[in-house]
Amino acid sequence: MRKNNIIEKVPFTKDMKSTYTILAPQMLPIHFDFIAKVLNRSGYNIEVLKTDHSGIAEEGLRSVHNDTCYPALLVIGQFIDALKSGKYDLDRTALLITQTGGGCRASNYITLLRKALEKNGFDKIPVISLNFSGLESNSGFKLNLRTLVKMVFSLMYADFLMCLSNQCEPYELGKGDTKKVVDAWTERLLEQMDGPLFVRLGNNYRAMLADFEKIPMDRSVEKIKVGIVGEIYLKYAPLGNNDLEKYLMSEGAEVVNSGLLDFCLYCVYNSIFDKDIYGKGGFKYIVCKIVAKYLESKQRQMIKEIKKHGVFTPPADFSKVVGMSEGYLSHGVKMGEGWLLTAEMLELIHSGVNNIISAQPFGCLPNHIVAKGMIRKIKDNYPLANIVAVDYDPGASRINQENRIKLMLANAKMARGISGLEYTEVPEEEMETAAHEIELPNTAAEALA
């Protein structure tokens, strides 16, 4: 609704909590299912949209400017598509969208969404902002401490399941065996959510490790490991990256992807770094220090259990990831994925994963700087690094994207055959020595010449 030519916010009130269906966009299937269940147990009726057809992008193009950030276009398109589907009572439906509070356009998706709703005749539908920066509030949507703690534990479990799933699925002998274990544990954890078993991370971790280890697998030939970094939505969302993980596995690769907890810690650390860079302290700084310490302790518990089990590779300790960007980017570079994107590429290389895909929206200035802009310097320091930047937008050709990935995989296979260093954790000095002895081709054309 407009007043004086300004789109007015439609509030989500307390009376709406028990009667409204709240739609949320999909990004990480395991994670968002957990979070939706947590919110449902808090009295909300949350439904995560799982539609993935091509009409979503078309709906987004009709609803927002075609120069809009691709993730925003998809999220808005998914919302509008759902509202037009006839599945929902439009007088009892609200939308939920996150706001990071940073300088990225993602913090303004909510305004673009409200304009799109007005354009399509849905301007009476409330839009709820899920943020921890005080950007917007809704009297009918509040998260208490109990709910927040459950969300943190859900995040840890989802990261754990994603980590183990990525290491099992490429090697499974029976197609779908890994997914069955993931689904079974998802249901089991959701059943535990209201009791004491849910907070016993260590017990559940050990039981999950045992179940994943039982999956019949053939590890006689190690797959090419490919790390994925990039803009947060395109890094994870199958709708945004054309089901990148599934495609990589079809090409014989093993996906290495950091958990969502790392991005959450990145946001928390940015507020901590503001004190050193800009002199911002106060209560927010103290709270962020406490939150970071708590989240890192939970992540270290996960790492400890995986190391103790000895079969799977644990994720990186975020406290080490933070220092990776030193000499490349200042921690003041925090637009978009900022210093985290560069740090993640370097952490992958240090852990022996030299093949990296940077998934980013075309024209995303922050990610062009911290991803494409840093690739040359990273390759100068680590010549074995095999990095490809893949741009996604409505006009991008999927064939061209996959061809770029295939070239990267061709280089990866050649590097493994020549150096034998691809899948071992190699000290930095040894990597540099090996790089001087081996000159890798930059393209498949050079390899064939």
List the helices and strands and how they pair.
Blueprint: E1 2-3, E2 6-7, E3 21-24, H1 29-41, E4 45-48, H2 55-63, H3 70-84, E5 93-98, H4 109-119, E6 127-130, H5 145-168, H6 177-192, H7 201-213, E7 224-230, H8 232-236, H9 244-250, E8 253-256, H10 260-278, H11 282-309, H12 318-324, H13 338-350, E9 355-361, H14 365-381, E10 386-392, H15 398-419, H16 428-437, H17 444-448
Parallel strand pairs: 3-4, 3-5, 5-6, 7-8, 7-9, 9-10
Antiparallel strand pairs: 1-2
Helix pairs in contact: 1-5, 2-3, 5-6, 5-7, 7-11, 10-11, 12-13, 13-14
Task: Explain this structure.
By secondary structure, the chain is α/β, with parallel strands linked by helices. Among the domains are: 19-142, Rossmann fold (3-Layer(aba) Sandwich); 223-258 and 316-448, Rossmann fold (3-Layer(aba) Sandwich). Helices cover 52% and strands 10% of the residues. The protein contains 17 helices and ten strands. It has helices at 29-41, 55-63, 70-84, 109-119, 145-168, 177-192, 201-213, 232-236, 244-250, 260-278, 282-309, 318-324, 338-350, 365-381, 398-419, 428-437, 444-448, and strands at residues 2-3, 6-7, 21-24, 45-48, 93-98, 127-130, 224-230, 253-256, 355-361, 386-392. Strands 4-3-5-6 form a four-stranded parallel β-sheet. Strand 3, helix 1 (29-41) and strand 4 (45-48) form a beta-alpha-beta unit. Helix 1 (29-41) runs antiparallel to helix 5, helix 2 (55-63) crosses helix 3 (70-84) and helix 7 (201-213) runs parallel beside helix 11 (282-309). Mean pLDDT is 88; it is low at 419-449.
